[in-house]
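fyi for ur records
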Amino acid sequence: MNPMTYPSPPPLQGNHRYLVGFVILALIGYSTLFSAAGRERLVGWWMIAASAFEKPVDNMLFRPSESVLTAEQARTARWIARRYRVALAPTEQIVQHAFEAGNQFRIDPYLVLAVIAVESRFNPVAESSVGAKGLMQVMPHVHSEKFLALGGLDMALVPWANIQVGTSIVREYLDRFRTLESALLAYVGVGAEGVSSYPSKVFREQERLVAVSQGRVLAMAD
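which gave:
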């Protein structure tokens, strides 16, 4: 006895196929727009598409550049990178900026690097609870005119700008109070006649960095 056979449904024709396709697309769109996961996917797709038309950011913290450091500066950068666990390439740029700012404002570049070490441990995006920012922990709103001259308050987190402003502040305090100890006391905010271990910390780090630059074994071991 032959099993019963049923006729197969006729294939969808013309408008029926379009109608089914429309219903499917509508259901997909509904599930996308009216569910949290779908909306997140939609936003993600939009951001990916929009990024293709965006111009590259011009004020990146660090830009690829060829190292132009001297042997002493390169030795210092390598030691800083190891000691403070930061990448070598950005550290080389920080050292270069410190020497440029130090020469510009007649401040020992190793003192500039020592201030950076004590203030931020070479973290370019460091920010204190009172609003000090960047490598040298400068207060942007207190020294706003300096940052505005370089492009705006957002430059406080750009390494070269932060180092330039911080070094210029040390220079101003040194011209006003005559000694580095008083200038550093003013820089840290206790006043030129205040009491703080801050200057001694900076001086110790400065001596260590100078020793490192000269390749002294004890300094390197430390």
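The chain has two domains: 15-51, 71-221. thats all i got for now
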